[in-house]
Amino acid sequence: MLKNRIIPCLDVKNGRVVKGINFVDLKDAGDPVEQAKIYSDGGADEICFLDITASNENRDTIYDAVKKTSKKCFVPLTVGGGVRSVEDINKLLNCGADKVSINTAAVENSKVVIDSSKKFGSQCIVVAIDAKKNGDKWEVFTHGGRKNSGINALTYAKEMEENGAGELLVTSMDRDGTQVGYDIELMSKISSKVNIPVIASGGVGNLDHLVDGIKLGKASAVLAASIFHYGKHSVKEAKDYLDSKGIPVRI
Amino acid sequence: MNVTIVDYKSGNISSVINSFREVAKEKVNIEVTSNPNKIKSSDKIVLPGQGSFKSCVEALNNIDGLSDTLNEFTLINKKPLLGICVGLQMFADIGYEETETKGLGWISGKVSKIDNQDGKFKLPHIGWNEITIVKDSKIFKDIENNSHMYFVHSYEFVPNDKKVISATTDYSTKVVCSVEKENIFGTQFHPEKSDKSGLKIIDNFISL
Predict the structure, then answer these.
(1) Cβ contacts of B154 on chain A, cutoff 8 Å
(2) What pLDDT, on a 0 to 100 scale, did the predictor assign at position A25?
């Protein structure tokens, strides 16, 4: 039976992890390799790097981080943040990323999704959708949530599936950072609309939220950042908890 | 010993290279090439494959002498070869992804889309699934039955002779996920991304 996945996400800035796990015995808390290793050894089903490097001149730092991590980490590695073109995707894959997530570029130019999924295969193309509720619908935001495209998130999700996305990473902008749980309605609506796997993101504050994301939100995988940081919960605890609630996980 | 990973410019093979180098350490030399002469002189071959069946077969045929060299290596010299994902699928006579495409024909059978039962099962089949070992395979030494492996695919290999099947996985139907026929080995899952169990399979292949 296919298992639901737990994906810890690490923010990487200038090639260094910010807000990672902060154990006392950690030699270098900013080292992406060390952080990713802790997660994969702890049973993470995938690792996600979100590159939040602000300045253009430091953009190459993510390549180096991916290169080093992929030599030591043997679970799938997804990398997103600032991916603009087919060439950016090519570079990340060559450095050892297994999947690349595309956000703003997919909204601005759907050809990036069409061309890259044709060139590299759908299996490595994840379209990241940042959605915010407006009345009774959700709209897609770009540029790290700063710009409203006005596009309906549900229609957009279907369109991205048709363009060749292999998975959708759906983040609720309303919930992101709030720790009150995923936007279940958004997740289940998108998941029911498309036939590709949906990864739920944004708003996890406790382990029950992960359960809800899968059971109610119908997500195939759950992504979380802060609950795994600072040792609040380990990936192992999360998996044991999901298992106790009858959710199939890899233990 | 030389193990060659065939780089025929189809998809991303960095993870395959990284995992084989991690397992091989200094004891085995891992080459990455599409050069037929180098392939001829190697002891073992890894045939990765990403993207569609059609694009992989085309990429393989685009390199002069490559498919002849692979045929000779595998069918005449009978040296060990491991196909991964579409690398395994290409063993078939024929594939139906995008359009009907002829495969290498090493293990008689076809590659068709997984039956998603009218949308009940999402495709691609992405993530960790347990494998049911149905036959002793040399690459499964010390691998427990029901071990988890990482999958990403929408198409499955359906061999005519069921005796070549070494493992299946449950997704919609019993999907063939590993085959062994004499010196030919293949996994539909990605050992290079399947953590310790996956690295063990790679180790088993290298140690054959």
Answers:
(1) 122
(2) 61
